[in-house]
Amino acid sequence: MKAILHADKEWGIGKNNSLMFRIPEDMKFFKNMTTGNVVVMGYNTLKSFPGGKPLKDRVNIVLSATPAKCDGCIVVNSLKELFGEISKYEADKVFLIGGAMTYKTLLPYCSEVLVTKVDAVGGADTFFENLDKNPDFELVFESQPVETNGYIIRFTTYKNLAVKQI
Question: Could you tell me the pTM of the whole model?
């Protein structure tokens, strides 16, 4: 499993249950990486999508502590159920897409984290772990800076050196 996200200079990932930045190149990267694959998210992340609808052309798995119903989604209520469900797919085709608690819970199980770093401060109220300070993660790729929509972004990949087995 891989995690995918964008983060500001302070590792902020969201504000008011929404993205802080709408950057077309980042959205295109996200879509290219996840289309045709599996996305795993918490229920609040699903609710943050337009109309609360699942992402098209992907298997949408929602981890919810309480029973929830969602057309077009597979809803699981525990890590055991989630691990059983994602084991049906190739690990490289499963992408963790948020939110903060889901990232925090499942980060140790991710082999890689794809972070679009935005050279700005977005006033986040939700944060991701600073992987640059985590000894279990190594920066293995960083793109050249790309200027877009008034922002400078870099596409990065972190490798988990201590992946927990599912």
Answer: 0.96
